[in-house]
Specification:
Elements: H1 2-9, H2 21-39, H3 43-79, H4 90-98, E1 102-108, H5 115-119, E2 122-133, H6 135-143, H7 145-148, E3 153-161, E4 167-178, E5 185-189, E6 192-196, H8 203-216, H9 218-229, E7 243-251, E8 254-261, E9 276-279, E10 284-285, E11 290-295, E12 299-307, E13 313-321
Antiparallel strand pairs: 1-2, 2-4, 3-4, 5-6, 7-8, 8-9, 10-11, 11-12, 12-13
Length: about 325
């Protein structure tokens, strides 16, 4: 090896033609092989394929790490007891005065009820506001909503330039409220204050305390909160007693159920054909978050969420038997 090293050092690299014939052949053969590899048509696609595979593997590794982090955070969140506090309508006006906005109009409408909110004994209170002030004060007022007025959402908004400077805003906001309160309900409107006392022996107060306890259970955040965040299905507006499984229909490889909405007991007129709905697996029925699990020829299987006496939300299986519709 030392001899070969000394022989290479004695070579004149500026005069390769003066090298020994065997060494010239070795170098020319090596250079030819390298050239063939660099210029051959199959080399670059394979290099690009290897490069793409390496990038895909790195991306998959990052996604797996992100998914694992999300699982850990979700598990920690589900173990945390979530407390939901609701504020009265006067908080919006108080925040407006704190930021220098002038409240020109303040009014309340009739509370709005939905099936999902009724299941949790809650309602939405429409609040009408007309404000006047600077744009920066308006933005600062809205920025405090998530912390000072959680759950409040804007339904409509009209902005116009005020001749005296600033802007004039007219909006309608929806505020979530509990329909059952264990303590006295205080509602502030302008300078007036009305207090509605509650009976300590009232059944509603007892139910409210049970509801408040149930909302602190981890199962509330795990099962009920995701249901409140999703869009509502049309048949969730009716109680399960008014829904009837009357048949099924094939839609490609999937079988859909035909569910008929029955009229109120006091109604005497016939039910129109428009009250028959096509329902597939995964749809929701009734007012207890009932989700269709399977469509069979003899019954429709649902899974609902119910509140147990211990304050825990548990799934419950409900069957809707097949019943022929009366012509």
């Amino acid at each position: 090896m030392n001899g070969l090293y000394m022989a290479l050092r004695t070579l004149n690299w500026r005069q390769p033609w003066a090298w020994p014939r065997a060494l010239q052949s070795v170098f020319f053969l090596g250079g030819g092989l390298v050239s063939v590899l660099l210029l051959s048509p199959w080399w670059m696609p394979r290099w690009q394929t290897w490069h793409d595979a390496k990038q895909a593997q790195d991306k998959l590794h990052l996604q797996q790490e992100a998914a694992q982090t999300l699982r850990v955070e979700t598990a920690a969140l589900l173990q945390t007891q979530i407390k939901i506090d609701f504020v009265d309508a006067g908080v919006l006006t108080q925040l407006a005065h704190q930021h220098g906005l002038q409240v020109l109009q303040f009014g309340l409408d009739k509370p709005v009820h939905t099936p999902a909110l009724n299941a949790l004994h809650m309602q939405q209170l429409p609040v009408h506001l007309r404000l006047q002030g600077a744009w920066t004060d308006w933005v600062a007022w809205l920025a405090e909503w998530p912390t000072s007025a959680p759950g409040v959402s804007v339904s409509s908004l009209e902005l116009s330039a005020d001749p005296r400077g600033g802007i004039s805003a007219q909006l309608v906001a929806f505020m979530p409220q509990s329909t059952l309160t264990p303590s006295s309900l205080t509602l502030k409107s302008g300078n007036s204050e009305k207090t509605l006392p509650t009976d300590p022996f009232s059944t509603q107060s007892w139910m409210a305390s049970q509801r408040a306890y149930a909302e602190q259970h981890p199962s509330y955040a795990q099962r009920v909160v995701p249901e409140l965040m999703r869009p509502r299905d049309p048949l969730e507006s009716y109680p399960l007693e008014r829904l009837q499984y009357v048949g099924q229909i094939a839609s490609g490889a999937e079988i859909e159920a035909l569910v008929q909405v029955l009229p109120h007991l006091a109604a005497k007129k016939e039910v129109p054909m428009a009250s028959v709905h096509r329902v597939r697996v995964g749809a929701y029925l009734g007012q207890d978050f009932g989700r269709v699990q399977s469509v069979a020829s003899e019954r429709l299987v649902l899974q609902e969420l119910v509140l147990t006496p211990t304050g825990e939300w548990q799934p419950r299986e409900v069957n809707l038997p097949l019943k022929e519709s009366v012509p």
